[in-house]
Amino acid sequence: MNTLDLLKPVPGLRVLISGAASGIGAAMADAFLHAQAQVFVCDVDPAAVERAKAEQPALHARVADVAQPEQVDRVFDDVRRELGGLDILVNNAGIAGPTGAVEDLDPELWRRTIATNLDSQFYFLRRAVPLLKETSTCAGIIAMSSVAGRLGYAFRTPYAATKWAIVGLVKSLAIELGPDDIRVNAILPGVVEGERMSRVIAARADALGIPFDAMRDEYLKKISLRRMVTVDDVAALALFLASPAGRNISGQAISVDGNVEYL
């Protein structure tokens, strides 16, 4: 096998991506489908799931709230029935959470952020790992963290706390699952172009009492390359990590962020 072939995921790879009916998750699902993978996605938004299935007839999909373990269990019932097993888990689902000073945060919004961003990773892992141990094809776990998982993020403490925790989870699981030939890595996207980032910028602008455009410029000034990344940039890294070229990469927290210097 030559080097270029190593960069391509194995055809027929069975991939599960959570929170993947839109945004980064949808871009990863599209990339894996183009790489001839079998892809199953779940998302909490029924309309987005239906739209994704209409746009990609080969996609396997169902509606699920990843913060509810019984709904995650139903996802895996479908995965086993429709894919026959699993080779790659992409723990992608997450929410932005509240923006504000820590003393002003609503405890319920804090709990919802932890449940969606962190607890869900565990719910998927506990069901995925037994399936990954059964496969001999590039078994791997990719967890979506954030640049906020390596830098402090004032006024976004619930979100940052979950993203730092995901990095710790990944580094610990890489040690735990290495003897089973299962690779575990985290992707840390930076400022990603799109509607979600626009909402984050708007919320932070409101919290600080400054105009949206000024807040957007502040975000760009923090990036060495002075530009946002795209969902396709993130999807490309996920493909690489799932390919034979990534077979000796594990326990890593890899940023795709243009080098965000501070938040």
From TrEMBL:
Keyword Oxidoreductase recorded: yes
InterPro entries documented for this protein: NAD(P)-bd_dom_sf, Sc_DH/Rdtase_CS, SDR_fam
Database matches in SUPFAM superfamilies: NAD(P)-binding Rossmann-fold domains
Alphabetically ordered keywords of this record: Oxidoreductase
Example of a GO MF term: oxidoreductase activity, acting on the CH-OH group of donors, NAD or NADP as acceptor
The keyword Oxidoreductase appears for this protein: yes
Alphabetized PANTHER family for the sequence: 3-OXOACYL-[ACYL-CARRIER-PROTEIN] REDUCTASE, SHORT-CHAIN DEHYDROGENASES/REDUCTASES FAMILY MEMBER
Family membership noted in the UniProt record: Belongs to the short-chain dehydrogenases/reductases (SDR) family.
Protein's name in the database: NAD(P)-dependent dehydrogenase, short-chain alcohol dehydrogenase family
Organism: Paraburkholderia caballeronis
